[in-house]
Specification:
alpha+beta, Beta Polymerase, domain 2, 5-stranded mixed sheet, 9 helices, 5 strands
Length: 227
């Protein structure tokens, strides 16, 4: 059975300079007390584009290490987040008791949507038992941080901003299953850091040669030209 997921609303922040999005994220977390609420259960770790200073849209990745975590505990965590700020939408995927349909297993994933300053934010929260399963996220991001220069950051942010026009960018939809022919922010980082890609056109060539993906349609070209 094919699962069709609804299109997410546009969460770009018109009129907000890209470096200010991280500052807005700090303000949102501080005002709602989300990290404090999560610390009741374990150790939250902000990773992804926030840690790498590559934020383009209002979305945060948080990894929560909990001692003795079981999937049924996730509802208390969601309740605590609700006490901080009621969600607009919540999607929970149980990858502990069931085989993962996409990505790694051994954790529970929560997509938590919320409003802040008239902008809809998305928190990607991965909850895991720290005694059983740990991802090497700190080590991976630490390695990237040593390689990212201001110029490379600027290149990655520019490509992300333009690539978001494409429905093949995985962030554009909620998906519970693997979708072939899509690309990720990690592909952009890899293209720039490991393959010398310097602009959006170079990234489209990288996708064609390395992933067999061609999303540079006339419609997309028009959208990009208007930016």
């Amino acid at each position: 059975m094919k699962i069709e997921m609804p299109q997410q609303p546009n969460r770009m922040m018109p009129g907000v300079e890209k470096p200010a999005i991280r500052e807005e994220a700090d303000r949102m977390l501080r005002e709602y007390g989300i990290l404090e609420a999560l610390r009741v259960y374990g150790e939250p770790y902000l990773h992804g584009s926030y840690e790498l200073d590559l934020m383009v849209w209002p979305e945060l990745d948080i990894y929560l290490l909990v001692s003795g975590f079981q999937s049924r505990h996730v509802y208390k965590i969601i309740e605590s987040m609700h006490d901080c700020v009621p969600p607009t939408d919540v999607l929970m995927t149980n990858k502990i008791d069931h085989a993962s349909r996409f990505g790694p297993s051994g954790y529970v994933h929560i997509d938590y949507m919320l409003m802040h300053s008239d902008v809809e934010w998305k928190i990607d929260l991965g909850v895991v038992d720290k005694n059983k399963h740990q991802w090497p996220l700190r080590e991976y991001n630490s390695g990237l941080l040593t390689r990212l220069t201001p110029e490379l950051r600027s290149t990655i942010v520019d490509i992300k901003t333009k690539a978001v026009c494409s429905s093949l960018y995985r962030r554009s939809t909620w998906q519970l299953v693997e979708r072939k022919g899509t690309f990720y922010s990690g592909d952009i980082i890899t293209a720039v850091l490991d393959h010398g890609v310097a602009d959006f056109d170079g990234f489209t060539k990288f996708l064609r040669s390395q992933r067999g993906i061609d999303f540079r349609s006339e419609e997309l070209n028009h959208q990009i030209a208007q930016q």
